[in-house]
Amino acid sequence: MQRFAALFAALMLPSLAWAGDLVVSVRTPAGKPVADAVVMLEARGAAGKGPIRFAWPYRMAQKNMQFAPFVLVVPVGAEVSFPNLDVVLHHVYSFSPAKTFELKLYGHDETRRVRFDKPGVVAVGCNIHDGMAAFVRVVDTPWAAKTDAAGEAIIRDAPEGAAQAVLWHPYLKAARNELSKPAPAGTTRLTFTAELRRPPVRHGGY
Amino acid sequence: MVCARRAATAALAVAAALCAGAAQAQSGLFARDTLHGLADVRISAADGETGWLNGGFGKTQVSGGGGDFKVKPRLAEAALEWKPRLNFAVSGVVTAELQPQTRPRLDVGEAYLKLRAPPNRFGRVSARAGLMYPPVSMEHDGVAWTTPDMLSASALNSWIGEEVKVIGAEATFERALGGHELSATAAVFGWNDTSGTLLTFRGWALHGIKTSLDTGFELPPLSAFMVTKQSRETDPLLELDHRAGYYGRLEWRPPAPVSVNALYYDNVGDRIAVDGEKQWAWETRFLNLGVRWDVDERTKVLAQAMNGETLMGYRMSGGHWVDLGFHAAYLLAARRYGEHALSGRVDWFEANDRTYRVVDNNDEEGWAVTGAWRHRLAPWADVITEVQHVSSKRPSRALAREAAKQDQTVLQAALRLSF
């Protein structure tokens, strides 16, 4: 019973907001939840304790000819693994200024690692499968999170003072794909309205 | 035939190049995703005239029964597509085609090497070389150059399938500018000298037939003016004049669910080059424009338009033996509903003969409406049902003792198995 309770708590924990947490809700103008949007808090003077660490794995798998997750948030200096869970070969690359890398052809159940040493947006692709696209958002703030399917992100232990909240999504209709708004001291809930572009046409064939 | 053999040699050279790379890259050569295949078993019923594959002027791959519908179950096509990977940037494509309605039945469809390196900050370079289709059709994105949702291609792309296949080399440069993606392609090629022959003497058609390395298409009855000059069969993959042709293509993908492309093709044919079997080099050029609009995640709209001309033979007081302008366009809309996809297409086509119309009139005008329903039974099995109506006017049908104006309705249902 105790074990069950612990499991229940573990399952519920990520979706429950505690005192000190900031819940950010992102919706389209039509009211639909926006998943995979990254929320970052910039707080002047405030700093986290020790090196930045997030609770989720720094991992971007290739599964069913897709990257999973589509958007991954990691701190500067993080080492991300790129396991190939497909039976076909993949060739993962990025030519983004924040991190240029190439993981030459590797197969089923093999993995490769990349260290992301600069903050910014890293667009990831596969040289074999043009339809595969994903993004690594490398952040230098401990207060960052990604929205879930319900369009909600929870930033743990948000700074007490005033901060600036920045929203980023790869297809956000805004300059540099970013929006920002102030989060006054004591804010526990913040809402963004974000209009998304349609993803670019991915063409196979020739 | 000598030239056909030369074409075969060139394609074999590509195959040899693939094998040469084999030793270093075992893993990518026969991995699970390198081999795909397709089989299409079909029943068809049609009214109207005799089809072009049976010696007539009919515009579809089905012959009518002289006013009555008749049903014929048959294997329409089987194909194997092998895409070996030599390393991270170099791969190959080799397709074997079995098409019972063509001669030979079994042949090599495409065989080319493909280079595609990851992009750098300047852009991305890719290249293809070998036996291949120029990037004209926006409909043929299935296995082995097939149309996944429909049984017949547009008139425009059916002609590409018949008479616009080359042995050549092509390079593409892609670059993103702001949110816009631009790509530019340039190619030189040979072995496509007879392109325009079938289009001139038979006219436009709508089907799923593809030319292969050694395919010869029988022409419908020729006029007394042409019958002594031109072979009764046309071989689309021939090099006769030893001049290189070229094509160039531009594509623009703005930050919207739209892409636009334009391709210009010129085979630079020497109109008076001919072989012992009366296969002539035709001077054929065209401009193709294409637009794709992904209306939403389930709905797409495609449109292409082509304007071209083809010339052949000696120039006499009345002009060249053949001087034909050709034009075609289509608009296609397709929408997916779970395991189902509905497609509708409207085709328009015409050809204007500019010389010797009194003795050899190759004028044509026509339209077609096509509706198709694809039902996915399993990831490896689809049932596609298509209904098509083609209406066209072609004075040269008199050579087959047929009325110039013909209408045909075709009903087809196919079980398509693929892996």
Textual characterization of the structure:
Chain A is mostly beta strands and 206 residues long. Chain A has two domains: 24-47 and 150-193, no CATH class; 61-138, Cupredoxins -  blue copper proteins (Immunoglobulin-like, Sandwich), CATH 2.60.40.420. Helices cover 5% and strands 40% of the residues of chain A. Chain A contains one helix and 16 strands. In chain A, a hairpin with a 6-residue loop joins strand 10 and strand 11 (133-139). By secondary structure, chain B is mainly beta. Chain B has one domain (2-418): Porin. Chain B is built from five helices and 18 strands. Chain B has helices at residues 2-20, 26-29, 155-163, 197-201, 224-227; strands spanning 35-46, 70-82, 90-98, 106-116, 124-132, 166-177, 180-190, 217-218, 233-234, 245-253, 258-266, 283-296, 299-316, 319-337, 340-353, 364-378, 381-393, 405-418. In chain B, the strands form two sheets. In chain B, strands 1-2-3-4-5-6-7-10-11-12-13-14-15-16-17-18 form a 16-stranded antiparallel β-barrel. A two-stranded antiparallel ribbon of chain B has the order 8-9. In chain B, a hairpin with a 4-residue loop joins strand 10 (245-253) and strand 11 (258-266). Classes of the chains: A mainly beta (206), B mainly beta (419).
Across the major sheet of chain A, the strand order is: 5-11-10-7-8
What topology, given as strand order, has the largest sheet of chain B?
Answer: 1-2-3-4-5-6-7-10-11-12-13-14-15-16-17-18
Please tell me the overall pLDDT of chain B: 92
CATH superfamily (homologous) name of chain B: Porin
Q: Would you identify the CATH architecture of the largest domain in chain A?
A: Sandwich
Spans of chain B of 5+ residues with little confidence (pLDDT < 50)? 22-26
Most extensive interface between two protein chains, with residue counts = A-B, 24 and 30 residues
The first-level CATH class of chain B is given as Mainly Beta
Counted beta strands of chain A: 16
CATH topology tier name of the largest domain in chain A? Immunoglobulin-like
User: From the coordinates shown, what is the CATH architecture of chain B?
Assistant: Beta Barrel
User: How many β-strands of chain B, per DSSP?
Assistant: 18
What count of structural domains of chain B? Answer: 1
Taking the sheet with the most strands of chain A, its summary is: 5 strands, mixed
What percent of the residues of chain B sit in helical stretches (DSSP H or I)?
A: under 10%
